[in-house]
Amino acid sequence: MSLLQVEGLGKYYNQQTKVLKDINFEVESGEFISIIGPSGAGKSSLLRCINRMVDISEGHVVFDGEDVGSMKKSELRRLRTNIGMIFQHYNLVPRLTVIENVLHGRFGYKSTLQGVLGRFTEDEKEKAFELLGKLGIADHAYKRCDQLSGGQQQRVGICRALIQEPKLILCDEPIASLDPNSSKIIMDYLRKITNEMGITCLVNLHQVDVAKEYADRIIGLNKGEIVFDGPSNMLYEDRIESIYGIQKRELITV
Amino acid sequence: MESNQLTVPVLIKRKRNGRINIRSGNKVDIVIKSTIWILALLTVMAFFFFDYTGLQWERAITETAYNLKVMFLEPALSHFSFSEAIHQVGITLGLGFLATILGAIIAFFLALMAAENLSKPIVSKIVRMLVAYIRAVPTVLWVLIFAIAAGLGSEAAVLGMLFHSVAYLVKAFSESFEEVNPGIIEALRATGSSWWHIVIHGVVPSTFTYMLSWTFLRFEINFSVAVAMGAAAGAGGIGFELFMASGFYFDLREVGFITYAILAIAVVLEIMSTRLKNRYFSNSANA
Amino acid sequence: MNEKKMRQNKLQITIIFIVILLITYLSAAITNFNFLDSVLTIPEAIGWMVSNLMITSETLDRMPSIMDKLLETVFMSIAATTFAAVISLFLALLGSQTTKVNNFFSVLARFIASFSRNIPVVAWSLILLISFGQNSMTGFLALFVGTLGFLTRAFIESIDEANQSSVEALTATGATYFHIVNKAVIPQSLPQMLSWILFMVETNIRSATLVGILTGTGIGAMFDLYYKSMNYQVVALITITIVVTVILIELLSNQIRRVIL
């Protein structure tokens, strides 16, 4: 059985505008998939329906055999521990240290009291340091996050997702706020996560060339509908045209 | 990446008990923590210093609860009429307004002297120090001190309230003067304009709405200050009636009515000033 | 800006000035305020201050009792502020759009804040005085109620200003409400909140003087006593001790602010 099934998914914030319409796809364990499309195509909403950061309006999302849409609060917490998330603006707590931010990824496993008291086990802390080491930022562990560069902050974000020991990582425009150099480092790490740890990655991107370079499979989204779903090397010029319409030329050069 | 694995353990900081430390322990955290601890400690100490003369907890609490119920559920007027009440509210508003508007005029000139881009550093410093000193004396003391010279009445109240209004508005005005685009001032200076020309044609037009809004915000504050001065310094108005109703007549229903009247005006003023803030200060608040 | 708009602006400003003049005239009429008199009062008052508000050596004998009352006032302000801060934190968490539990509690929290803020502290002191009597508790509670409303509003703003994004990130890791509040919301807004608390301590020392006059407690009562018995040397000494205290606390809290903000 596949890790994630999306069946007839629809999302609307009000009656007039449907952000997502009848989305269907399946994700196998260990895939590296990129979702591309112009801004406003519904990429962000699609990712947030999967871990139900936004409510699902119609259809089903089935993760690991369980229906996400009908989950109750405690089940939802358990679901979210299995799904890591990485954000465009890193979404770290700027005043706290890097290591504290990484350990925030363990809250899903904690009772309220444990978490509020800030009790983390030594194993968890060591694991956090190990992950920081793997991403090459261990020497910043005791720095405050707002002292780090964007690329470094995103690596903290990745560590926070990894310490959850997730089966799936959702990345919402992870490199949109980064310079080309840092972007490459981040994408390399994400690719490595799938290759070496076998964690599935679903990455929202707006750069077609980056998507083609890194992803095994690309899903093209336009106006809330899937207009392309296939291996990266099948994404030809005319298909890109259908995803981006006339905006294509500007976006490719980004 | 492999080499990192070896260096990691060296980087881990441990507490004395051998557990791994995750806090940075930087200056900011230490200052925040110690400030909170000191405040907490002082609070605990405070209760040992307090003077509990004549305090009977149980009686005081039940009585206050009963009083509040009477006040807020059965408000009524008995010692003066409704139109008189409106007149008294008018007096309080009038006191607040006079203190605000006179304060704004004085503050305008002082703020010109305090603004770093329009004044000399030494003048600016002196004005700022003066303002800090003025602010440190509670308004009620200013009013009472003036009352000795001028006699109790609206003059003493307005003059006393003036000090804090001026101090508040000098700060607000001079900050908005300092935010005036230096290009405007430079351009006027380049045309050979005098200092007063720059102020009147460059600074005032670009800060007029801000000054007006700040003045209104101060008016909101001055209304409650005027209530307080009426009660504590005998300056008249609704505050004085409140003092009489509670302190002399022990008429809780009247206290309730007066409180509602004050509350109504205060809420209206607050809604107006919140609108002003959202309209004119939303950009600067985010910056 | 074209000419028409400029003329419109000029018209607007003229209207505003006329309205202000009108209200000023009305206010002066209703309060019996005489501009000329009050201008003449100023030199008189300053002259009086210079000649009467002198600190003489015999007034210094009262220093210990003044310090005692001053200390009571400072403690009263700090205790009222910290107590109010703790409750305000809960109200603000309920009231803020980011951290509210549901709409009912959000509205309720904002209502409580608005209610306690908009009834002036004098009204609270007079109400409490009736049953609590002349002791520190009355002053403490009056300051507490006023501070509660102000701090709740300030805290709600601090929480709303803090980064929403980390709240989203922690929700996505499966953290509970309390994890999020404790590890994302509070660490981010704490410096701002602390700054407001310090501001309120300063303000409350000034208000405590006022409250003291009304409720017969602390330095305010002492001021009132010597003021009414026309012992102006002591009045001067009390005023100066208040000024020094307020300025010291202001300097200290500015120092703290500089580090934490």
From TrEMBL, chain A:
One of its GO terms (molecular function) is ATP binding. SUPFAM superfamilies: P-loop containing nucleoside triphosphate hydrolases. InterPro entries: AAA+_ATPase, ABC_transporter-like_ATP-bd, ABC_transporter-like_CS, ABC_transpr_PhnC, MetN_ABC_transporter-like, P-loop_NTPase. It comes from Gracilibacillus halotolerans. Pfam families: ABC_tran. The keyword Transport applies. The keyword Flavoprotein does not apply. Residues 4-248 form the ABC transporter domain. Keywords: ATP-binding, Cell membrane, Membrane, Nucleotide-binding, Phosphonate transport, Translocase, Transport. This is Phosphonate transport system ATP-binding protein. CDD domains: ABC_PhnC_transporter. PANTHER family: AMINO ACID IMPORT ATP-BINDING PROTEIN, PHOSPHONATES IMPORT ATP-BINDING PROTEIN PHNC. Coiled coil: none annotated. One of its GO terms (cellular component) is membrane.
From TrEMBL, chain B:
Pfam families: BPD_transp_1 (PF00528). It comes from the Bacteria. One of its GO terms (biological process) is transmembrane transport. The chain crosses the membrane at residues 30-50, 89-114, 126-150, 195-217, 223-243, 255-273. GO terms for cellular component: plasma membrane. It is a multi-pass membrane protein. Keywords: Cell membrane, Membrane, Transmembrane, Transmembrane helix, Transport. Residues 89-273 form the ABC transmembrane type-1 domain. Its main location: membrane. It is found in: Cell membrane. PROSITE patterns: ABC_TM1. Belongs to the binding-protein-dependent transport system permease family. This is Phosphonate transport system permease protein. It comes from Gracilibacillus halotolerans.
From TrEMBL, chain C:
It is a multi-pass membrane protein. One of its GO terms (molecular function) is ABC-type phosphonate transporter activity. Keywords: Cell membrane, Membrane, Transmembrane, Transmembrane helix, Transport. InterPro entries: MetI-like, MetI-like_sf, PhnE/PtxC. The keyword Translocase does not apply. CDD domains: TM_PBP2. Belongs to the binding-protein-dependent transport system permease family. This is Phosphonate transport system permease protein. It comes from Gracilibacillus halotolerans.
